[in-house]
Design a protein that fits this description.
Elements (H helix, E strand, L loop, with lengths): L2 H4 L2 H6 L2 H26 L3 H4 L5 H11 L2 H4 L14 H14 L1 H20 L2 H13 L7 E4 L8 H4 L13 E6 L2 E13 L6 E7 L9 E7 L5 E3 L13 E12 L3 E3 L4 H38 L1 E2 L2 E2 L4 H31 L12 H26 L9 H12 L6 H15 L7 H7 L1
Parallel strand pairs: 1-4
Antiparallel strand pairs: 2-3, 3-7, 4-5, 5-8, 6-7, 9-10
């Protein structure tokens, strides 16, 4: 499939030869590996999805055997000699999202612990865990991100150090111990890849309730005594990435596994981590939107309705245009947000002071809403055929609807961005009386 077939003016204008090549290869993987596996997983019982021989493991192992887990890492963490530009990363992530939202999510949460270790981990932890993880091509390592708790869904995103009571009593607490910490409590049933992960990137309260200043972030091995997994949840959408609870019963975490201890760094870290995840998820959501648009366009070009091709009816033409507009604008904004986040994250450059939360959250909100709106319109274009369990658009619609909640509800993300706008947006001010006098 060439650039003209992809249909994106932005791709035609901006991509260099390497990005074009990587996109072509990622699209092949999406077509031949991710989408068939996702289709099969969507129809399996929850327990079957995590059983040995499941298509989930086959797909993840394929991604690792092809080195995709190294593609997005910096050179010092085992990535390419020259880090891929943000635009190229966006192109590949969009293709993975086009192939399977669930498997793309599983791929991203697998990478999260390694990326955090590369930035915050000790040399000992890098040598003992990060190096073999990055070298692995057989699926021996798999990560997850344990954030939400049963009573704290998306709340974590909106917590600020000046409003500690907002979060309330924690359900996973960390108690200091000799040489480390003891974890007690649980994370919610919505931990992506929780039922199959070998390691978790864990947020835990370490002191006063609801205060991010007194929280920690650690990489926790999930095969140690005291860790228990709940059964995989049977979700409406994104069934191709198993989700489930994690329980911690007096689990010891050595100090070397604590990447960000309690203190002033934690709130900054948490905020910037959410900037990165928001930007990345937005590009994957664009892939979902494009997949739905592709289904609608193909159907309109081939379906005979009302005496002619469906695509010849003006209301369908306007709907397809609106879908195309959403995909293109979401793609443009998400790519800009990821580039800005990577260039301005602390440590990216000497002068970098931090990525913009309001822009990163907006990218996620906009792209997720675009994915849902496009999937909704696509289902309307396809009509009754799209309601069938045998139709791809039926799965895409359920996945897109799940996006409005997963990784932070749109309402919470928008409120968090609104607070940043209100507190930090710089207005162009002027003296009205002086301007009137000049007139």
């Amino acid at each position: 499939m060439g650039d003209r077939d992809q249909g994106s003016f932005l791709d035609l204008a901006e991509l260099d030869d390497e990005a074009r090549m990587l996109r072509k290869e990622a699209h092949r993987v999406a077509v031949e590996v991710l989408r068939p596996a996702a289709w099969e997983l969507d129809r399996m019982a929850p327990a079957e999805r995590i059983a040995p021989g499941s298509p989930f493991f086959t797909a993840m192992d394929t991604l690792k055997s092809l080195g995709y887990h190294r593609m997005f890492l910096p050179p010092e963490a085992g990535g390419p000699a020259e880090r891929l530009p943000a635009l190229t990363q966006s192109v590949v992530l969009e293709e993975l999202g086009w192939g399977s939202l669930g498997l793309a999510t599983a791929f991203l949460v697998d990478m999260l612990p390694v990326m955090c270790i590369s930035n915050f981990g000790s040399q000992e932890l890098k040598d003992d865990l990060m190096v073999p993880w990055v070298a692995d091509e057989s699926g021996a390592y798999h990560g997850c991100w344990a954030v939400t708790e049963p009573d704290h869904g998306s709340d974590f995103i909106a917590v600020r150090d000046d409003d500690p009571a907002r979060y309330g009593p924690a359900q996973l607490v960390a108690e200091p111990a000799d040489g480390g910490w003891i974890l007690r409590g649980q994370k919610s049933a919505w931990v992506s890849s929780g039922p199959i992960a070998t390691h978790a990137a864990v947020h835990a309260q370490a002191g006063r309730d609801g205060d991010l200043f007194h929280s920690l972030f650690a990489v926790v091995e999930l095969d140690v005594p005291g860790v228990r997994r709940g059964p995989p949840a049977d979700m409406m959408g994104v069934r191709d990435d198993p989700q489930g609870e994690l329980f911690f019963d007096a689990v010891f975490v050595p100090d070397r596994n604590v990447l960000v201890p309690p203190g002033p760094l934690y709130p900054v870290f948490a905020d910037q981590l959410l900037c990165l995840t928001s930007s990345v998820i937005s590009t994957v959501a664009v892939g979902v939107a494009r997949a739905a648009f592709d289904e609608a366009l193909h159907h309109a070009r081939t379906r005979i309705q009302g005496g002619g091709l469906l695509s010849r009816h003006k209301n369908i033409q306007l709907t397809l245009y609106s879908m195309f507009e959403r995909v293109e604008t979401a793609r443009a904004y998400s790519r800009a947000a990821l580039a800005h986040t990577q260039a301005n994250a602390p440590g990216a450059r000497p002068e970098a002071t931090g990525a913009s939360p309001r822009h990163a959250r907006t990218a996620q909100v906009y792209a997720k809403r675009a994915a849902y709106d496009v999937a909704h319109d696509a289902l309307q274009v396809v009509g009754a055929q799209g309601l069938s369990r045998g139709a791809l658009i039926e799965k895409l619609f359920r996945d897109a609807r799940s996006l409005l909640i997963e990784d932070g509800t749109l309402e919470v993300l928008a409120l968090d961005a609104a607070r940043d706008v209100i507190d930090n947006y710089e207005l162009d001010t002027y003296d009205l009386e002086e301007m009137m006098a000049r007139w």
